[in-house]
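Team,

Forwarding the record for the chain on the shared tracking sheet. I've put the sequence and predicted structure together so nobody has to dig through attachments.
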Amino acid sequence: MKLFKIATRGSPLALWQAEAVKKALETQHPDLEVQLVRLKTKGDRILDTALANVGGKGLFVKELEDALLEGKADLAVHSMKDVPVDLPKGLVLGAITEREDPRDALVSTYAATLEDLRLGARVGTSSLRRQAQLLEKRPDLEIVPVRGNVDSRLARMRATYLDAVILAAAGLKRLGLGDRIRRILSTEEMLPAIGQGALGLEIREDDAQTLELISFLNHPPTEIAVKAERAFLRRLEGGCQVPIAAKGTLTNGSLHLSGFVSELDGSRVVRKSDSAPSGDAEKLGLRLAEEALDDGAREILTRFYSTTESL
């Protein structure tokens, strides 16, 4: 029986995701003995500082990638929204799984919608993307940084009397916490993070055997949509902690992409959308980014990067 090792973070959600991949591999390939290699990333260790202030790119993946490069693991399972657009030399994404619900969710003890939140309500999130979109609609809100795994963020809401927290719907559903969702926020209300809801399976570039083993887990419609989203992000030179969002939707061979860039306080927002044949996913993402840059995103991002670099 061949031993196959999967690198994963140790949070409950990361372990759920890695276990799902493990079970699928063992079912598809009964001759595999799959083991999980649990690792703690920099993003897991630093919980008292905003991600944007400690180098948002790759904070949740580097240690897993190191395990791949050092031969300590055959595969790394990531939330796609955490994966930087530029991978280390020698590594590739071998598969992108079928997307769970990509949208964000409102969790609150009393509010059924964003409009129901009281004046000056305290809302927990450490995502600059979520912050910007919340403040665009509700400038009166007080945004409270909340880091940690899903359970700890829910506990923080209760312990510090937050009016609400915003979390990824996919994570809540995967952990069996879907009943905590008061409202799934539409993409018109809040555009999700690039790749949100999908899993990225990272492997060594020269590992043809592992590529073949995991190929059945790749979901082409999700791969196409995420490719367009990541092209949009790459052209804007954004990381996971930049106020940038995008969502691709594939329908009957046509890919629709919506993109968003904003000031941190939501005072200036650039939104763009366009469609193209599914085979032009990357071109669509790049074109939409260029349109956004020409329409004000360049100035927004220049200010953002100059501010964060001085922190």
